[in-house]
Amino acid sequence: MEFIADLHIHSRYSLATSSDLTPENLWRWGQLKGIRLVGTGDCTHPKWLDELETKLAPAEDGLYALREAPIGTPVPESCRADVSFLLSGEISCIYKKDGRTRKVHCLVYLPDFASARRLSLALSRIGSVSSDGRPILKLDARDLLEMALDASPRALLIPAHAWTPHFSIFGVTTGFCSLAECFEDLAPQVYAIETGLSSDPAMNWRISALDGITLVSNSDAHSPARLGREATVFSCALSYDGIHRGLAEGGAVAATIEFFPEQGKYHADGHRGCGVRLSPQETVAGNYRCPACGGKVTVGVLHRLELLADRPEGTRPAGAPPFHSVIPLSDLIAGALGVGCTTKRAVALYFRVLEELGSEFYVLLKAPLAEIERVSPQLARAIAAARSGQVLIDPGYDGRFGTVSVPSAPTCD
Prior knowledge:
alpha/beta, single chain, 2 domains, 14 helices, 9-stranded mixed β-sheet, two-stranded antiparallel ribbon, TIM Barrel, disordered C terminus
């Protein structure tokens, strides 16, 4: 079966996250977005594990469901659907290897609470797992994978936002040049990478070493409303083993739903302090220095991929699943109305659209334009432009989000 999943999120126990991140709110926003399977996030944090065990009950094999739907939670009937949870977490591995400091963020997935407790206990012997939902540990990413497999032979590890400069497996600042260099003998146990907001599958298809590695996308949401910024459309059994088997054997992913990569905050090169954005060619010509102040330029994802690419732009490996580049519905509404995303007018129209048409992904990807036009002609025009790729792009760089909008419709961050 096909279902949409967002398997990289955080709980309110992670730093710089919303206090609204509760199982109930994730359940609600999963329905509003059209997401069938949501990662729990932070599955090694003891207090979050306690809350999850209290509030979740076994559902499909290796997945969980909310024990009790909250009374009075506003989910429009047009959006109501089952939402399941998969135990997930992100670990920040910071360590020395081959004479360099490495900073690699990894996603771990586990089939049951007993496995999550075992991994949490093992990690607590290395560093704190309770001070941050995404623990920062002096731990080799290869050893993290070994510990996850010790906790459960069915564990999965996926490198998170694989290309971002500072905290990723391939990041130009602290990363590696290959999966094998990072994971050594356990590299065959890494079946997928997360492309991150600043790259898309087409960019990754230029790396022949990633042939046979599944590309997945997730939101890395720090608040419930950010669920589904990116997501993965799976085509496999709705179960932990279905996902595990599909990733291990290939064929698990039918498509991904993507940010335009230019909207990611590390897509281009640049120096935010001086407001300078550069192309890879400009960075090289300037000896990787900011032309305004002479400081070091932050090399972005586009440049890093260019350095490792061994195929030309436009390459598509045989059998590679498609992807859909979307602008979030809240941005499109804000642009159509000419107001901010969080204004009363924009929020009211957002929920009116959901009530009358269905979930956000249905509206963005499938709803007939005539149906959307009956609710908002301006929004229908904006969605038509976004679907056809008629967009205006202002790329992000050095931690500054880019903007992608449709003509005459500015967006907000």
